[in-house]
Amino acid sequence: MAFLLSAVVTIFIVVDPIALTPLFIGLTGHMTEDQRRHLAYRSVTVAGAIMLVFVIVGRPLLAALGISLDAFYIAGGALLFLIAIDLLFARPSRTRETPEEEAEGRTAADISVFPLAIPIISGPGAIATIVLFMSQAGTNLFKIGSVLVALLIALVASLLVMRMSGRIMLLLRTTGIAVIGRVMGLILAALAAQFVLNGIHAFMHRP
Description:
Elements: H1 2-15, H2 20-28, H3 33-65, H4 69-88, H5 99-107, H6 112-121, H7 124-137, H8 141-163, H9 165-204
């Protein structure tokens, strides 16, 4: 149960559906309601497919590259810590989308794949987190199922946020979204530190 809770909380915070609100509004301000709805469903479907690929090939890929699990713990923890710092300071994370990618995304004909699906929803942080948890899960079916449940929750939340982005923005406004982000950033920072400590502990006690 602890693994399930950790997976759900970490993946939800890294995907950060709440932060999608101003991004989605900014990118779709010129669209009709039908276009926004189609865009939301398409972007979540594509993002889900991308992350599902890494659920399947993540651990074999690490093995093929000769990357140990403890090394990935440390690298993944460091990446998550950078995301946590951005959340704590209420600034856009460059692991999700750079200013150059945002500018290109605004002029793209179809923004459901780029930049919404990748890198906003399924960015490097989300992909690294999924690979990290799948490496922890190993062949344990409960843990593998936990990662899939956590991924599903994050994707459904992202879809709901995009569908209700206008109402959420009116309710929370920019300040409210920033406050929620800071709280999630603090939790993510602690989880990131734990991943780094796990990696160091595993390395120090490796036979």
